[in-house]
Write a sequence for this structure.
């Protein structure tokens, strides 16, 4: 047992400790069960633990404080096992000192991943968004040492393969979770290529990604898209967690400044038949979308929360329109970072500066809780700028510094995080380098004028 962790399970039902013991047996860890907080306190006086697992039914009456006080001076993390709860109940649990809240019924790989993130002192980084921006960010971050990653993914996509599947099968759109699974995969490259394979022909198949079809089939087998994501996460042996932001099948709706109402993520994203310079006055979900409790728990327990990069409304703010997500972000103990998009987007952000992007994020969060904002200072070629200008797009500039200060208290970090190939995109390695420097710097340091990778 040399080097083994000591894990104390406090639960009136020994079945939980038996399950945890079976999962951790191959790591050589020691799992001990006691049925009450009082017995746990007595045991901790003579037998210290590295991790405490507490059933929510025993969590009242200051139980978390009692356990941590009895564990002095080591103060091991307390993990709470809980049924799905409201965001207010989850926030209250974290305010009591809970390090992580596991929503039951739990998934074996996810439980082990979260427990060992705590035991090994890994930095818990949660990424919130969708599209290629989230994919690019995750690709880079998974190369960082001592980091535990969670991708909280937008579920608003209704175009292309995802839209066809959503309409045909009535399931949550699989495209963005597919990208996150591949980004965090440690499976052989051929398996990832297979998952990303898009059919170029075939009646009913043309345009579909094989991974989207597999996720849809697994959702039918497992009963839900979140369980399908978990199952295929096992197949791809992902490094971290992928969590749909909501399990509600809803439609993204944008009300424009001229009163026009646009329904559907794809119609908002591709402004055909309307003036693409008219700004979005309000974005919402119809019907109202409720947050996935696992996503709320991940956000509340994060050390670093990364919002973006991605299209401002259809990828980033789409997640902030899910009930419970803004409240969890505002209450989270995490350092909160918004990564601004590289280019403006007709129909969403025509004419936007970085200050406009930040202002909208703060508006949908409901409070200015951002600690840092990353804005690209990558120099693109004249030819690239000309090609984008033909599409009414331009780089997102910082703009008036005085206005930025009025919009947010966050420090503004300008960094070379862009990449110019056929398209202008974020560079996964440069992004990871900037995030690594954020992880290494004090949370309330003086502004870093420039970060380069």
């Amino acid at each position: 047992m040399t080097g083994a962790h000591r894990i104390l399970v406090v639960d009136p039902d020994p079945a939980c400790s038996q399950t945890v013991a079976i999962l951790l047996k191959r790591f050589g860890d020691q799992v001990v069960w006691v049925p009450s907080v009082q017995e746990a306190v007595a045991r901790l006086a003579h037998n210290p633990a590295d991790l405490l697992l507490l059933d929510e039914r025993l969590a009242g009456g200051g139980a978390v404080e009692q356990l941590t006080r009895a564990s002095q001076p080591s103060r091991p993390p307390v993990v709470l096992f809980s049924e799905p709860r409201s965001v207010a109940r989850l926030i209250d649990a974290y305010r009591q000192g809970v390090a992580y809240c596991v929503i039951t019924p739990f998934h074996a790989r996810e439980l082990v991943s979260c427990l060992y993130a705590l035991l090994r002192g890994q930095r818990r980084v949660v990424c919130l968004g969708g599209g290629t921006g989230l994919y690019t960010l995750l690709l880079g971050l998974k190369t960082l040492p001592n980091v535990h990653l969670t991708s909280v993914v937008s579920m608003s996509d209704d175009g292309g393969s995802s839209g066809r599947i959503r309409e045909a099968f009535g399931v949550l759109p699989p495209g963005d979770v597919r990208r996150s699974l591949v980004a965090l995969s440690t499976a052989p490259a051929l398996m990832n290529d297979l998952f990303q394979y898009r059919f170029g022909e075939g009646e009913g198949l043309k345009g579909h990604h094989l991974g989207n079809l597999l996720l849809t089939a697994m959702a039918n087998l497992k009963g839900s898209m979140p369980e399908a994501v978990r199952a295929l996460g096992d197949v791809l042996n992902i490094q971290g967690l992928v969590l749909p932001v909501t399990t509600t099948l809803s439609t993204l709706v944008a009300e424009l400044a001229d009163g026009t109402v646009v329904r559907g993520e794809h119609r908002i994203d591709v402004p055909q038949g309307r003036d693409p310079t008219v700004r979005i006055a309000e974005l919402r979900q119809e019907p109202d979308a409720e947050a996935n409790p696992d996503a709320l728990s991940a956000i509340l327990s994060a050390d670093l929360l990364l919002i973006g990069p991605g299209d401002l409304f259809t990828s980033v703010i789409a997640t902030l329109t899910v009930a419970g997500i803004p409240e969890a972000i505002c209450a989270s103990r995490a350092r909160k970072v918004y990564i601004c998009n590289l280019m403006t987007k007709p129909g969403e952000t025509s004419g936007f500066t970085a200050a406009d992007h930040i202002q909208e994020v703060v508006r949908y969060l409901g409070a200015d809780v951002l600690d840092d904002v990353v804005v690209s200072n990558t120099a693109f070629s004249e030819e690239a700028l000309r090609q984008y200008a033909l599409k009414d797009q331009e780089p997102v500039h910082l703009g008036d510094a005085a206005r930025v200060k009025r919009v947010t208290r966050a420090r503004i970090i300008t960094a070379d995080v862009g990449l110019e190939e056929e398209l202008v995109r974020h560079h996964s390695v440069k992004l990871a380098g900037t995030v690594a420097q954020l992880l290494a710097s004090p949370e309330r340091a003086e502004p870093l004028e420039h970060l380069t990778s």
User: Anything to note?
Assistant: Confidence is low (pLDDT under 50) at residues 444-453. The chain has 19 helices and 18 strands.
